[in-house]
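Re-run requested by the PI after the first attempt was lost when the workstation crashed. Everything re-entered from the original request form. Ligand of interest: adenosine-5'-diphosphate.
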Amino acid sequence: MLVIGLTGGIGSGKSTVAALFEKLGAPIIDADVIARQLTQPHQPAFTRIIEHFGDKLTQSDGSLNRRLLRQLIFADTTQRRWLESLLHPLIRECIQAQLNKLNAPYCLIVIPLLVETGAYPFLDRILVVDTLKEHQIARVAARDRLSVQDIHTLLQTQANRELRLSLADDVIHNDHDLTDLMPQVMRLHEQYAQNKTAPTTTK
Ligand code: ADP
């Protein structure tokens, strides 16, 4: 099975693109979904996070206060790295376990911080969803109701476009309408389903 890592900056359109591949029947594994599962009460990562940051991170129903956790790591590189070094090896293990159960010509693994965290030895190709920074900012502002200043701070914690593109085997350009995405997805779907490894795709 061909294993594709799908990545891109925040608001680039990863989830939108993954949903289109899913419509075409591709199995999707999502690192963010796994991260949320690992941080449910009594899961290993949950326990470590509470030990590290203290009980202030538990809500009255016993669940993790994700909003407060995001605030704590937002502008604190040391804490963010601590959390990443806790979560990413666990996420990798879970991805590997899910991969072992799949039987398909190809599958996509959505890994938002693929370029930043690296070390995903099971990937055959990297697919980057690329868009202009202005579009990222406008889309995230509309989706998450964050201030432009906060989005800039977030973008600074992520790899820049050039670095991400330099690691891409395939690229989906998301600078236009949503309708522009499906033809690009279909082209790659056909390529991946036949397990062909063509050079980097351009529009
Ligand atoms: P990511 O998963 O990379 O953070 P999303 O797929 O969630 O990004 O897209 C961010 C937001 O922008 C979503 O609300 C999505 O519906 C919207 N969006 C994505 N692509 C486009 C586009 N080409 N035109 C308009 N809105 C878009």
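Saved to the shared folder this time. Residues 8, 10-16, 139, 143, 174, 177-178 surround adenosine-5'-diphosphate (CB under 6 Å).
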